[in-house]
Specification:
This protein has one helix and six strands. By secondary structure, the chain is mainly beta. The protein has one domain. A six-stranded antiparallel β-sheet has the order 1-6-2-3-4-5, with no helix packed on it. The longest helix has 4 residues. The chain starts with a strand and ends in a 7-residue tail after the last strand.
């Protein structure tokens, strides 16, 4: 079983698999993405994103659990 990882300790793989993220209020399905074609340096830095855009305040993350085996 996966454990929550503090973003201060480690970050997920950039442009990797989906992850779960915690922001102090709830859990969200996220990705950690970098946009190399962004116009600014800040825009090219990796960031947590959800279906609605940039996800702010993420303090912890974990890989998704394995799907059930039937």
């Amino acid at each position: 079983m996966s454990e929550w990882i503090k973003v201060e300790d480690a970050l997920p793989k950039v442009n990797g698999d989906s992850i779960l993220g915690w922001n102090g209020w709830g859990v969200s399905l996220l990705s950690y993405r970098s946009h190399t074609t962004a116009k600014t340096e800040k825009g090219r830095k990796p960031r947590f994103e959800n279906w609605n855009g940039i996800a702010s305040g993420i303090t912890h993350w974990m890989p998704l659990p394995e799907p059930p085996i039937e």
